[in-house]
Amino acid sequence: MQTERPGAVTFKGHPFTLVGSELKPGDKAPDATLINQNFENVKISDYAGNILILNAVLSVDTGICSAQTKRFEEELANLPDSVKVLTISMDLPFAQKRFCSDAHIEKVEVLSDHRDASFGAAYGTLVKETRWGARALFVIDPNGTIRYAEYVPEIASHPSYDDALSAVRELL
Predict the structure, then answer these.
(1) 100 catalytic, yes or no?
(2) What is the tens place of the pLDDT at every residue in 112-129?
(3) Backbone CA torsion sign across 24, 25, 28, 31
(4) Which of 35, 51, 60, 65 is catalytic?
(5) Quick one: pLDDT at residue 2?
(6) 18-171 has which fold?
(7) Residue 148 pLDDT greater than 70, yes or no
């Protein structure tokens, strides 16, 4: 049975339950299968050996989620190729592909958890009542260990970009 965390996040002040355990720095990063924009399976473990930023968002079609993804697209220009950013949402790959084209997202990989919510359940970001993904950031080192984890308590708020990027720079 999955762990449930009632009231773990809010959306515009309304409390919601997160499904899955809260991950912390030092935990081994769980694997999860996502779908890319060509409807191919992609696993978190496919990125082993890289520094990975997992950018969990509600939907790329919302203001903060869009801004969050664009911010990491800009930051990747100043980081080595060994740093990968995956934006993960419950959006269908069709919508993600349109968003990436319209927003000129080329370096950030935007992936869907829509099929089975395996990422949301494994990373503790699945919103039980709505099947949304909660806003969160994870930095994973090349050995698959979580070095930074942030669950944004209010889904309609920005995460701490600077803290996540500091965790990345400590690994370089």
Answers:
(1) no
(2) 999 999 999 999 999 999
(3) positive
(4) 65
(5) 77
(6) Glutaredoxin (3.40.30)
(7) yes
